[in-house]
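thought: fold this chain, then report.
action: predict
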Amino acid sequence: MPGVSEEQVKLAREVDLLTYLQANEPYELLPPKNGEYRTATHSSLVISNGQWYWHRGGFGGASALDYLIKIRGIGFIDAVETVLGSKASPTFLSLPVEKMKPPRPSFALPEVAAFPSNYVSYLQRRGISPEVINRCLETGILYESRKYQNAVFVGKDEYGAARFACLRGTRDNFKADVPGSDKRYSFTLPAISPDSRHLAVFESPADALSHATLQQRGGWAWDSHRLSLGGTSSLALISFLERNPRITRVILHLDNDLAGLTAAKKIKERLAGGDRLKRIRVTINPPRGAKDYNDVLLRVIRQEKEQQQPNRRKADILF
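observation:
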């Protein structure tokens, strides 16, 4: 290739954006929040888990090379030379190897437990119905890990490949994402109909499954995809909408607390401000009288049991 060799191009593609900015333009990086970085020039550019996404432009990438070409508008050869340091100051390649950011860990799902039982008991204690659990099993997005017997919630890409997984302790409060997980593909319970145009959004997998259980118990004639953000970041939501242009309505069921309500408002404003996503109808519907939808589900179950007890006592007297 004129101007740069194939080896130089290969090296340039291996440099992620965060590493490049830390080495060459540290003044561009704003203080990180919740593991996410933003830049001074492009406030809607988010860098997380080795990837970057420009919300204003509606696209993302992984390498610094993509960033320089697609956002900065630098020509390919100049971009390669800039990443490798021939036109950057201080030069990228002059940094000691030990100071460079280690590569993002490769993603691999935890090994499946041979005799799983703990994760089903864990979900049933949280009120999740057997029918909803079976839907997750049939979709391949839920199982129990062999090590530590954690519940594993899997997120898949548009081709059905696992790209994300989060762990939840079945006997304690342990929570963690599997190393190398890509949060753009967070846990999603697909709608029964693949053509559904509705998306319900939650902070956690348990809340998404609780909402599905409430629908089943109440006989709601409504069908939607259910997405867990794994917190309050909009990264997974924006990515889901980009991959699923059919979606015309988004219902934000984030937690009924300051963090959840604030995040829901910001997400709604962000979607309304984007040219490609403003056509989507967005509503905010936090759980009423509870912190999250799992609390709502457990309250409904508890109330049903309380109503059944007097009827049982009456039956005992009659017979």
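thought: worth noting. The chain has two domains: 6-99, 118-307.
final: tokens above.
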